[in-house]
Structures are given as C-alpha cells and as structure tokens.
Amino acid sequence: MNNEKLYLGSHVSMSGPDFYLGSVKEAISYGSTTFMFYTGAPQNTFRSPLDRCKIEEGRKLLLEHGFNEDKIVVHAPYIINLANIGNPSVYDIAKKALLSEVQRTHAFHAKLLVLHPGSHVGNGEQVGLNAIIDGIDEVLDKDNSDVKIALETMAGKGSELGTTFEQLAYIINNSKHKDRLGVCLDTCHVSDSGLPIGNFDEILTSFDKIIGLDRLLVLHINDSKNPVGAHKDRHENLGYGYIGFDALNYVVHHPKLTDIPKILETPYIEKNPPYKEEISMLMNNKFIEGWREEFLKKL
To answer: How much of the chain exceeds pLDDT 70, in percent?
Structure first.
C-alpha cells in the first residue's frame, strides 16, 4: 500500500519551553504524517500567550517535513460544556473558552477543532442539544475564520450528548453555521456507545445517511478496554482491547476515508507514549504480537 496519502498521527504535547515547535518534533519522532494537540492543558482554560508558543518555528519545521497544515488537528479542552445551560456561569465560561480555542486554532494556522458536545447534567436531552446549538452559533457569530468544529462522537456515559449520529445531525442541521460543523468519529466511543467497529461499513453507511460522509472531518483511532455498548470510554492500546487491530486497521485504510486525519489517543505505557510502534504497525498493515510487552522491556 502507498502510504503517501495516509494522514496518521497521534496526540502530542504542547508545553514549554518549545511549545508548538516541540509538538512538531514529537510528531516527527513517531513517524507521523499528521498530529493533534491541545493549545493548553485539556482540563482547564489557562493558556500561554500566543507570542510564546513558537508557532512560526513549528510551522517552518512542519512544512519542511511535508506535513499538510489542513490536516493538523486541535482539541478543545474537556472543561467546555455547552450543554449545561442550567448553570449560567458554566455555560458562559464554555462559550468564552470555545471562542478562544477557535481563535487560537486559527492562530496556529490549523483548521480543525475537535469538541466534546457536552453533557446535559439532568436538564434533559433536548434542552442540552438546543443549548449546544445556541452556544456554537453565538461563538461562530463572533468569528469569521475558516476553522471548522468537529463534534466528537461520545461513549454515552452519564448524560453525555453526541452519543448517536441522530444527536450530532440535529446539532449540525439546526445551527446557523452548519457549513463550519462536522464530526470527529472516535472508534472507542462508537464501540462503547453500542456500534461494533467490526461492522464498520455498516456504521459508515449509517453515518452517511444520517449526517453525510462529507461531514466526517477527523477520526480518533483507539481500541477499547470494554465490550460493545459498555458506555465507559476507556481507551486501550491497539490490539489489546475489545475492538482489535484488524478492525482498526480496516478503518485507517478505508478507501472512502483517505483524506481524513486519523489520530491515536491510546494510553501511555508506564508513562511512555507508544505511538511510534502503533503508527508503524498501522502504516505497514501488520500487527506485531507481543509488541506491548517488548515495548515494556525497552523502558
């Protein structure tokens, strides 16, 4: 297989002193052809000033190594919850944080921002979905960049929204800015929500019918620690979970998804990222039995 058009990478860090330059270096070290990063800690909204983030240095190295900037992915912080309209202060913080992330994504010359839709925390599904729509519209009313928001498919734990394709379609179709909205499909989340990744062609057909394949902007490639329908959201290393390497490899190399960036968010092993090994296996369409045990021996 010719992997020149395979946009495959992982989550990378973005911290001082090298910031974005360090992100690019990390992605290169894994043999990636794309990557995803947070513009600050995912658990809060504190962000380093953009003039400290070594954006241009990172871009220079990125372009020198043949990365396509259009395929670089930013992930919004988890703390953003646009569905919790019952708590006005939380809802207001979420909108401000999302606007900041859209603007920061643009400043990094990236065009794809992944967002967890949110949890309604007891206010009800319909109230939560409408709150997400209103929040996104308010944010994008204030921004005229070309950044697109990719709403992530969720596992369905608690009162999470975005668990079904129908919920995501409702958000997109009722937004004033539907041209700037799409979906990030997470294999672990989809499996945990109740759809077996082993039936991926059926999943893709359903996605296309309900949302539209042109709306699929990002793929998160993760195995799952739990069986189908567990609603747990616990990622596992490739080949060590309930989804399995073959099913995930099929997704990565699917001919209808060639141009979509594919991002690994699998767990660190003893605080060490396994992405070089996992990316290599996917690039070569070959699972190496016992790779995780061998990885541990080298630590």
So the answer is: 99
User: Rounded to a whole number, what is the distance in angstroms from the first to the last CA of the chain?
Assistant: 32
Residue (of 208, 196, 188, 191) closest to 256 by Cα position: 208
By C-alpha distance, which of 67, 70, 79, 61 is closest to 34?
67
Place of tokens 């991002």: 263
**Who's near 231: CB < 8 A, 6+ residues apart?**
155, 156, 157, 192, 193
**What pLDDT, on a 0 to 100 scale, did the predictor assign at position 5?**
78
Tell whether pTM > 0.85. Answer: yes
Query: At 210, which amino acid appears?
Result: I
**Measured on CA atoms in the order 31, 36, 40, 43, is the torsion positive or negative?**
negative
Give the C-alpha separation, 83 to 120, whole Å.
5
Strands (E), the chain: 8-10, 36-37, 73-75, 112-115, 148-152, 181-186, 216-221, 223-224, 235-236, 262-264
List, for residues 193-247, the tens digit of each pLDDT value. 999 999 999 999 999 999 999 999 999 999 999 999 999 999 999 999 999 999 9
Q: How far is CA 206 from CA 129, 201, 202, 244, in A?
A: 21, 9, 6, 22
How many other CB atoms sit within 10 Å of the CB of residue 240?
Answer: 16
Q: Tell how strand 223-224 and strand 148-152 pair up.
A: unpaired
